[in-house]
Amino acid sequence: MLHQNLLPLGILIIKWILTAYYGFIFLALTLTEQGEVKVKVWEINKNRIDISVIDTGIGIAPENREKIFQAFRQEDQSFTRQHSGTGLGLAITESLVKMMGGKIYLASKLGEGSTFTVEIPRKYDA
Fold first, then answer.
1. Quick one: which of 6, 26, 80, 106 is 20 to 30 A from 37 by CA?
2. How far apart are alpha carbons 50 and 40 in whole angstroms?
3. Is a pLDDT exceeding 90 seen at residue 117?
4. Which of 45, 27, 7 is nearest to 89 (CA)?
5. Distance CA 104, CA 39 (A)
6. Domains and CATH numbers, the chain
């Protein structure tokens, strides 16, 4: 029997997925002053799906692509940065994706935009 304050596992997984994608979509919308943000979902095979958030924003420099997934890190670490935030969003998102058995892929070109793609299993075994 589930404790009354606990969500059933299926609802919890959906919440994790939505939280993870909210992070990518919020980041894309924040850093895309003009252009577009797209979300694509497709089936890789019967066991896995991909979800991508594609933007035409500022892009991420190659030397910062791994750092932005670290807690309290951002592309621009200066005190005069244009965009605020704690630098926790992508670290939390990566943790959630890993908990679901997924992987994150990042493709980005500075000044042209980024694509964050998450591959996750269609079924989660606790």
1. 80
2. 8
3. yes
4. 27
5. 15
6. 9-121 (3.30.565.10)
